[in-house]
């Protein structure tokens, strides 16, 4: 579904018959081509995207693909931006209405806490840290790992993200049959597990201050719950050996239910405590339209997650000013990056874990600006498109990716100058990508040093106010400020967009008003040779 109506970026040959081309580069993928790709078992394909289109103003037809209204290749002058905005806005009416009907936890149940194999093959663990439980199954100790099913030739047939605390019934490399369940997890709790065996000791667990006895809602049994407490106390479960040496320590966040007792002897893979999955309750409040607005406005979410700034191995430091030090060390370059994490946050990586750049290290939503800074624009675009789609999918609404891509492209239009070089641009200026590239091109042609810049993420409101056209910006928000600024800077509006032309009473530059179509001139044809010419008698003036 995702590739129909898009243009392929590469030529794909049939994996069996190498001479047969399934799709050529720069060819529009229709339903028949998509079906043949699916039959051939092609898992991934590079397509042209609006996000990477190098067109200065607007986008090119090849990167956009099919116009979904007509089913034909998109025509020049089509108002694709307005179509994109309407395609996202229209199902929004259904989102708001339905948010009230689906209770928080109910919307979670659609996600089955099991994974079944769709094909026969053998399992392959990717970036998974596991420990063998007492029953012989394998328990996942880290987040962001995946499990794949490969065929005899070693080709990956399917891949799944594995939740922390999942129980995998088969070890790495074993055979799995079609329809067989091989992964299960508890959908309501995030477990805190240990990969070391030993004796349990509690630290900073004081009755009435950091812990209380409470009934576990799920099991109905009395248990110990960590409560909100002062910053200088850090409840921990420590595992010691017979010589009283500390093997591992685990900070337990507020709200967690402690499963083990002090002095108890445990084996590796044992469950120490479990934290109720907050997501299950709040999915609905932050779901729906507010979540879409939060993404498009590029707001910094509350209680945001900490993400890894470099690839490296996790090391735990001490506590500094009420925050826990977490150090990432790159084994190759020996680079180090320090993260200070509040003690109330639940860290989802363990000491000795290898984390990739941009990987989440604590629970919570990710700040889009940080993804841009750490991983670059491409990863951010992917993140935004997937997150917006997730909200709509929950409601059973299908939106084509290209509409969201167009909006995301507008959010990443500006760049911030980090080194002006020999250009006329100033350090710290926010300029349009197009303007930046044109200025650099001019300087390079003259043999100068080009400017350097980093991409900036703007929310859609801010992006609208930052347009080149002051008439368009003034008609949107902060009219007085926009007009005063335009007057002081002596700005000129070239009337390139729709809004400014509507305000001026001109024909909008879309459809038949598109510049290319307006330049069409009718050429008078001469009379064909040999055609009979009928002369009409001239009317005589009436006499009398």
What do you see in this structure?
With 544 residues, this protein is of the alpha+beta class. Among the domains are: 112-186, RNA polymerase II/Efflux pump adaptor protein, barrel-sandwich hybrid domain (OB fold (Dihydrolipoamide Acetyltransferase, E2P)), CATH 2.40.50; 190-276, RNA polymerase II/Efflux pump adaptor protein, barrel-sandwich hybrid domain (OB fold (Dihydrolipoamide Acetyltransferase, E2P), Beta Barrel), CATH 2.40.50; 309-353, Beta Barrel (OB fold (Dihydrolipoamide Acetyltransferase, E2P)); 410-507, DNA polymerase, domain 1 (Orthogonal Bundle), CATH 1.10.150.390. It is 24% helix and 22% strand. It contains 14 helices and 27 strands. A 5-stranded antiparallel beta sheet has the order 3-11-9-6-5, with no helix packed on it. A 5-stranded antiparallel beta sheet has the order 12-20-18-15-14, with no helix packed on it. The chain has a 4-stranded antiparallel beta sheet with strand order 8-7-4-10, with no helix packed on it. A hairpin with a 6-residue loop joins β14 (211-215) and β15 (222-226). α3 packs across α8 (401-411), α5 (288-296) runs antiparallel to α7 (377-394) and α6 packs antiparallel against α7. It is globular. The N and C termini lie far apart (82 Å). The model is unreliable at 99-110 and 279-285 (pLDDT under 50).
